[in-house]
Fold:
Amino acid sequence: MASVTERKPPGVSFESWIDKQIRLAQERGDFDDLPGSGKPIPAGDVDDELWWVKNYLRRENLPTDSLLPTPLQLRKEIERLPDTVRGLPSEQSVRDVVAQLNLQIVAWLRAPSGPRIPVSPVDANEVVATWRQQNRPARKPPVTASPEPDDPPRAGRRWWRRKR
Structure:
């Protein structure tokens, strides 16, 4: 437990105790080679109170959807469902994705939090039907063997129809 700092001794002011802790850490080299050292602190948008949240999301490559309330997140998942299942290989995997989403919806319906936005479970059969339409193989016209050309018509009459 060497990383835990000791308690402030009684009778010592907080400022001098904190200054001492910082000085000791600097002497140990704890602040050397920190990411962003020597760079200015980025100034955010003065009018936006949540500039630091936006910077964090951008820096960590997090989707902004994670900031939405649960019912809105679920509604967005329902909207994106056709795109989500488009590349799945089988009907069972499509049904599994829909079942997982429906579990999340039912969990929210049992203990709703956030704004009251209507969200209902998704019909797996409708999603599967849409998936089938999207993944229907393109039908090619049947290839028929081209008929061999008949012998060219002979000039004149045939031998059995000749009159003698």
